[in-house]
Design a protein that fits this description.
single chain, 462 residues, alpha/beta, globular, binds zinc ion
Length: 462
């Protein structure tokens, strides 16, 4: 048995783990590298011949876990892609959106470079196009949570609810009397929309994410109050509230909180734009799979009330509608993708608002190193679509809405293990974060071997 780490090693994106087991070649997750300095890896020759892979097991639909699928199919993969139904539906939407953005960005970049008479570090063509995405669809096979799937005489696979986004899973592989668990991304224990992550009692080998392994999220109640305060104060000043939003899960959660605050009369009724065709579509998927939901959202849906809708909410599908938002004076709320500002309509809204002291740019999700979102948080001046802008708007960040477990939640999940895993591989975190987290884990699991794998590193598992 052999495992090779093809992404999310001492960085957050590009999750891909190659597992060779009983003559079968598995890839767990198939994510895109999204950090600016690592994007070139998406263009490199894939370290394992794609045609030799039998299965791709998908933990969830986020692009840093699924966004490389069209490329790998284009390069010869023709096995099966196993995931839950909501993951399949959301992944389809996410990949189509990803291809569209790639085509648009490549074209823009080409024109810009032509004008400036220079060449970028990688080709001015999209990594894949819509037609490549459509070819992925026929390889999907649905799985249900907790169902045993036999993929060979000796190998079985089970998906468990990870509580991170709709349909997200932990994936456990049973082979030769060994258990290997891939955590994907681990969710929260008190998400108002989703169920809590499944508690797992054992696994010989554990591959675990550590995104927020060095910090504690704000309490949800405090996050909600902060959200309320920011909206009210920005309205007082006459500025806009611009929220770079991940279309999957975060958009629905922000809508849920806006609806809650409106019902409780804690914020004014402001025109709110969900300026993301993708977020609109994903919201529809949430409505179709309400039995996957939990808590408050489920209660409302059972009463036939949408937790993701309110009177002044506008869904802007077309670019023309989106451009109209630029002419609206006075306060409005603009939610647009992409969540880390690496592409999409958010860039235009940032250009319109980033130099306005009365406006607020409100981050409600993780901003990876090397992304525009992270630069806005850390710098006084940023480059957007080739031009430099001073950061004069109020910049705010709410961590409490995160879909990722924080340090204490990661530990709470991990400490549920009744027996120490033989090996714990820590992945999907920035290097300093993984190092810090590994020190805590070492103390508790002194019998386990704690490993922080490097990109393309390979391990034999006995
Ligand atoms: Zn994720």
């Amino acid at each position: 048995m052999k495992i090779k780490f093809l992404g999310a090693c001492k960085n957050v994106t590009g999750s891909k783990f190659f597992l060779q087991i009983d003559g079968i070649n598995l890839l767990i997750d198939c994510g895109l590298f999204q950090e600016r300095e690592l994007k070139n890896r998406n263009w490199e020759k894939f370290p394992v011949p794609p045609e030799k892979l039998n299965y791709i097991l998908l933990t969830h639909a986020h692009l840093d876990h699924s966004g490389y699928l069209p490329k790998i199919v284009k390069d010869g993969f023709s096995g099966k892609i196993l995931c839950t139904k909501p993951t399949k539906e959301i992944t389809k939407i996410a990949l189509l959106d990803s291809a569209k953005l790639m085509v648009e960005d490549a074209e823009k970049k080409r024109k810009r470079h032509q004008k400036e008479g220079r060449k970028g570090p990688y080709p001015e063509i999209p990594l894949y196009e819509i037609s490549d995405v459509e070819r992925v669809f026929s390889f999907f096979e649905d799985v249900s949570y907790n169902e045993e799937i036999k993929i060979s005489e000796k190998v079985k696979v089970v998906f468990y609810d990870a509580g991170h986004i709709l349909g997200s899973s932990f994936i456990k592989i049973f082979a030769d009397g060994k258990e290997i668990l891939f955590s994907g991304d681990i969710g929260r224990f008190n998400n108002p929309i989703l169920k809590a992550p499944t508690l797992i009692e054992s696994s010989d080998i554990l591959i675990m994410e550590t995104t927020y392994g060095d910090r504690i999220h704000e309490d949800r109640k405090i996050a909600e109050e902060k959200f309320q305060k920011i909206i009210n104060e920005t309205k007082e000043k006459g500025g806009n509230i611009v929220i770079p939003t991940f279309a999957i899960e975060r958009a629905q959660e922000v809508l849920y909180y806006l609806k809650k605050l409106l019902i409780e009369d804690k914020i004014p009724h402001l025109i709110t734009f969900l300026d993301s065709p993708m977020a609109i579509e994903i919201t529809e998927v949430f409505k179709r799979y309400y039995f996957y939901l939990d808590g408050e959202a489920e209660k409302l849906l059972n009463k036939n009330i949408s937790p993701f809708d309110f009177p002044l909410l506008h869904f802007t599908k077309s670019v023309e509608e989106s451009k109209v938002i630029n002419h609206i004076k006075g306060s409005c709320i603009i939610m647009a993708g992409s969540g880390m500002c690496t592409g999409g309509r958010i860039k235009h809204h940032l250009i319109q608002n980033i130099e306005r002291p009365e406006s607020t740019i409100l981050f409600v999700g993780y901003q990876a190193k090397g992304t525009l979102g992270r630069e806005i948080l850390e710098k006084d001046e940023v480059r957007i679509l080739g031009n430099y802008y001073k950061v004069k708007a109020r910049i705010e960040k709410i961590d409490g809405f995160s879909a990722h477990a924080d340090r204490d939640e990661l530990l709470r999940w991990l400490y549920y293990f009744k027996k120490s895993p033989e090996k714990i591989f820590l992945v999907h975190g920035e290097e300093e974060v993984i190092n810090e987290f590994s020190e805590i884990v070492k103390k508790r699991f002194s019998l386990s071997e704690i490993i922080i794998p490097s990109y393309l590193e390979e391990f034999e598992i006995q």
